[in-house]
Specification:
Layout: H1 17-59, H2 64-80, H3 85-100, H4 107-120, H5 126-138, H6 142-154, H7 160-173, H8 176-189, H9 194-207, H10 212-222, H11 227-240, H12 244-254, H13 262-278, H14 282-295, H15 300-312, H16 318-328, H17 333-345, H18 349-363, E1 367-369, E2 375-377, H19 383-395, H20 399-411, H21 417-430, H22 434-441, H23 454-466, H24 470-486, H25 491-507, H26 511-521
Antiparallel strand pairs: 1-2
Helix pairs in contact: 1-2, 1-3, 2-3, 3-4, 3-5, 4-5, 5-6, 5-7, 6-7, 7-8, 8-9, 9-10, 9-11, 10-11, 11-12, 11-13, 12-13, 13-14, 13-15, 14-15, 15-16, 15-17, 16-17, 17-18, 17-19, 18-19, 19-20, 19-21, 20-21, 21-22, 21-23, 22-23, 23-24, 24-25, 25-26
Amino acid sequence: MATETPKAGDWKKRESFGSALVQILIVAALLTGAVFLVYKRGTNKKEISELMREARAAAMKGNAADLRQALKITDQALERDSGSPDALAFAAAMYTDLWMMHREPGADAKAKEFLDKAKKADAQTDERFGTEALWMIANGDAKGADEFVESLRAKGGSGARIFYAQAVALQKMGNLKLARQSFKAAMDKQWKDVNLAAAYGESILLEGVPGAIDAFNKATGQNPELVRARLDLALARVQKGDRVGDAESIVKDVLTRPDLTPPEKARALTVQAHIALIQEQPDQALSLCDQALAANPDDLWAMHVKASALAQKKDPSAAAALDALLAKSPSAPIFYFEGASDLQKAGQLDQALAVLAKYEAFFKNVKNQTADGKEEAYLDRDDRYYLARGDVLRAAGKLDDAMAAYDKAIAAKNVNITRATYAKGALLLEKKEYDKAGEILVDITPPDGTGQLPEAYMAMGEILFNKKEWGPGCQNYAYALTKLKLSQAPREKLNAVLTDVEKKLKDAKQKDIAKLWMEEAKPLIQ
């Protein structure tokens, strides 16, 4: 069959019906494929979102096994999309927690690997930025981490892990007031994550201020299975000497778990060591501390209890043990103050003063903002430091220097002003300056017995006895006895006060008053 020869210049392609139909079918197939890919991508994204929600719920339970389970779920998300920014950042955060909280071998390398991937994927999540800041701190750049978080917050960043990282940075730098606020902000931001509540309580415990037991009670009430919070509560109880038997029970129960991580085992052993120290068994405490430090060489509280046990034995190496602790944790006031007190009791007064000098050197440049926006030096308001310094100087016989320290403690006008006032009054009493001592103590020993310190009433009783004011003196000693009993002081101490007052009265030839004292004071301690 002949075909028509195209004319020159006829550029339009001539198509049959069949070829047009083929092209229509090809276009339809391509459109169907595109629609399928869009549908698949949308389904994949939804599945990843659901998996990440499941992973986060698992992580909220808080123990190491829960973090590992969260990572297994995250792996499923990454199998669907290996470049998912959310999954990569979350994995970096979980591996960071496994390393920093549980010292799981290899978790640090994994954390850094996933953090790099999250940064390349431009993850814009709380986990990515908070984890990045935590590794800056771990690498020794707390100031840089704080500035990094501040820049994020200026752009609206306010996630729990971001606040937590800033809290750790501020704590490292010694700005404890702001650190505590940031720990609390992190806890409030993600209240379901009880590890954040535990971290807040731990910051209080390291600072040595009231509130740790309440924080840990709240944490364990919310998640009774979180090992970290349970051990923190046990530690806080033995630190305060409050319901030590309960602490012992917690530790015994925790040690039956087969899945304890090395830091958890170390902390349990440390609490047992602390209990041994309370029972004046320093050798047993040292043995338990060595076991704890073998499990986790970075356990600060194990190092602290070890130094205390050495001091209880009056071992000359106690100061060196304390120095090693302070080098590792220079921003924790509790270690300075309890360490200096331990060395003072051990008769190592120069070493105790050296510890307090290190405290002053570390905190001297710390500034806090007042309510009216002004700055004040941390040490100017730090009555605990001046009280501790005054006590060591007094023990060393440097009474004038001790008096100057107590005056600074009073001038701080902080929470320990009553104790600082008592310390100054007691020092004046030691110097037999009875009138001056009375003038100082009168404000903290109201005659209706509503004062706080039994020691202050004891001192006022002694002052009045020296003035031969036997009746008012006995009344002050009676107030002291009542307060000692309310504070659950040992029976031996109560009896010692009772008989000491009787002896003083008899020595002063006040037998009738001594008899009346015994008749009326004995019921106070029964």
